[in-house]
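anyone else get weird line breaks when pasting these?? whatever heres mine. first is seq + tokens for prot A
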Amino acid sequence: MISTFVSLNKKHYFSIIKIRQMSKVIKLKKGLNINLKGKPENHVLPTETSCLFAVKPTDFYALTPRLNVKVGDEVKAGSTLFFDKSNPKIRFASPVNGKIESINRGERRKLLEVVIRREGADIEYEDFGSLSCESSDRDAICEKMLESGVWPVIKQRPYGVIANPAIVPDAVFVSTFDSAPIGPDLAFIAKDEFAALQEGLNCLAKLCGKKVYLNLKYGADNSLFEKLDNVEINYFSGPHPAGSTGIQIHHIRPINKGDHLWTVDLQNVIIIGRLFMSGKYDARKIIAVSGSKVKTP
């Protein structure tokens, strides 16, 4: 290991030593980085105040939805649109306030999407009441996440289904970087959301009864993520799919028979944190529009 540091300058040497003491660096050799044109710029544009939003049950594997609204109903952000027939406690909420524009179905009346028309600059929220994760038990945290419709953002491995709230997971994984071609800079997206990110991680740590695996890109500017508590940090380097939680699970804690591991997208961790800080289902996200056909990505 000493020979690895011989060619490095003094500053870099000590930074690597510090990382090695706190966590481990996992270097991937297999994979491929596809250098596509149209990388997104770190610049956020405002959205239209009047537009359509769709919540799609088909985005969730093995879900049988049961409707809770009809066309013409007025909803707020956090209002229940539908729930899981097999587990009615798992609700799916509207991300915005507005009116139910349409309910679209496919073959055999399969529910495809619930469309909400949002109008007005300000979002009206259902109030679920703020709650401190640190001072709450697991049951209270589960109940608030289920009631507000935030719970479905947690995925359970194997199979990638919605996590079962009755099961305490063996581990939770969160990736802080996207290694896919023309993927967004998640550190830029999270830079103004430190408090909500920390609260979301506190919540996940309470749900699993242990620290959360927070996986960082080695060599990147991780100053924001390295300040976070209640996490076990690991660094990944190498080509895509180094940023995939599935690959990270394989290298940190492979799934064995009977295991239950949870994964949560970084922006969804922030949404969980906002819920406990403000009592609102604040589903705002920053989305990257990129690629060679986009004039200003």
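and prot B, same format (seq, then tokens)
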Amino acid sequence: MPAISVLMPAYNAATYIAQAIDSILQQTFRDFELIIVNDGSTDRTEDVVLSYQDNRIRYFKNDGNKGLTYTRNRLISLSSGEYIAFIDSDDLNNVRRLELQIRMLENDKSLGFVSASATTLNNDKTRGGSWKFDLTPEQLKPYFLFNNPVVTSTMTIRKSALPDVNFREGYPPCEDYDLWVRINYHHKGLVLPVSLASYRLHVNNISFLKNDTVRENINKVV
């Protein structure tokens, strides 16, 4: 059984998924499995994933396009590690991400999760700005009342800290925010100031979405 399960949902991700996979396979912490679930892609996502010959990769397909909430929950159900780490199929991780976060979780058993800051990455491959947070467990809980400082591709969770219901339908695109808050209600979490991911900006990122449904679901979480 690997120490950590790295979970990657993928939908029409052929353009970027190889970079995401490489950033995990190059991690300094080696005791992991990388689980990829293809959510009904219609491009070459499957071809790219199957081109890798690494026994740490476990590949699955949904029966059609089920959506991100369903896919992330399936990934969790397929995981076997004591810890789970998320990465989106178009993001990149610092090669020391897993090493640093596992060390912190091992050294402090009261921590339910560790996340980190991130650098933004534009579609033209240029570096953008940075989302830098430095939040202790005491600071993070009240911060969640005003904002979600957790970049999903930096989130590493002690699996035993997960609630009975993981990502909930009815919250997209805030289902991750909802889960982090519910974990943090019962367990400590923190956000490291070091950047451990490059987060690719798209027009469908939550930071760009301003419709009423997004605002309504943010308010439900708050």
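btw re prot B: The CA atoms of residues 66 and 140 lie 32 Å apart. The longest helix spans residues 175-186.
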